[in-house]
Amino acid sequence: METVSYRKYTVLSFFILAAIAGYIFFRGLTQVLDWLKYTNVVTAWFGHYPWKVVGGGLSGVIAFILFIWATTNVKAASFFDEVFAEAQKVTWPNAKETYASTLVVCVMVIVSALGLFLLDNVWNWIFKVLLS
């Protein structure tokens, strides 16, 4: 059996995750500095550049460090490689199977709704009789 490398997908996943983490860090840091009213103080430390430049730069550095750490972490890389290898084994249903499954789900939803409707009406009738 041939060995397939999923390293490019792993690196791309780490890049996307680092970008998302950097964005979350930027938004969180922006919120905290706005609450504490320190945005002007922080931008003054960095030469009065706009906050989007300063915060974006800091977040970019954090994201880059996270990306480098993730790509050099052997356990994380091998885990993602295994995930992509397992994802290759997934088979999708064909159109006929999808149609049949959808039909079964729709029928079961209708049957469940009717059953709950009837049960609700029966309990409603029982409580009306008992309370009147």
What can you tell me about this protein's structure?
The model has no long low-confidence stretch (mean pLDDT 91). This protein has 2 domains: 1-90, no CATH class; 93-132. The chain has helices at 7-36, 39-45, 51-72, 74-88, 95-131. 8% of the residues are buried. The longest helix has 37 residues, at 95-131. It is built from 5 helices and no strands. It is 84% helix and 0% strand. The protein has 132 residues and is an all-alpha fold.
List the helices and strands and how they pair.
Elements: H1 7-36, H2 39-45, H3 51-72, H4 74-88, H5 95-131
Brief rundown of the structure:
This protein is mostly helical and 132 residues long.
- Total individual domains: 2
Q: How far apart lie the N and C ends?
A: 76 Å
Structural class based on helices, strands and sheet pairing: mainly alpha
- What's the helix-strand series? HHHHH
Shape, per Cα inertia axes = flat
Largest sheet: none
Stretches with pLDDT under 50, minimum 5 residues: none
The multimeric state of the shown protein is single chain
